[in-house]
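Hi everyone,

Forwarding the result from last night's run.
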Amino acid sequence: MAEKSSKNKRTGQSSVEFGLLVVAMIIMFLGMMQFGLYLYGLSVVENAARNGARAGSVAQECPTCQAVQAAQASAQGAPVLADPSFEILAPGGVVGSVVEIRVTAHIPLIVPGGALFGLESVLNVSSEATFRQEGW
């Protein structure tokens, strides 16, 4: 009889250890996914800012309009970004002047209880790009 209760205790202990291990692995997996979303979102925002500044630097008329339109078009298809905003920091318009744009967006939090782990900082991505206004 003593042999059977000892075996039950070991089985119960194994179940508890397995449960703790699975929870830790799920949290680590979600953390990796969150980091991947952050890097992907940052890449999309950087490309949008670069495309916007480039389009504004070669525009014949209204470089700020062209810069914002190009940045919006670049960021539009990204499923990770929420609430993208586009801000012109330097309007350009004169040959040799600077066209500068900032693109900012939010990334969804997929880690449960992520605020407790300090993941608010990975929810916002931002990038700036600068190009000189070209002349024709």
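Residues 2-57 form the longest helix (56 residues).

Cheers,
N.
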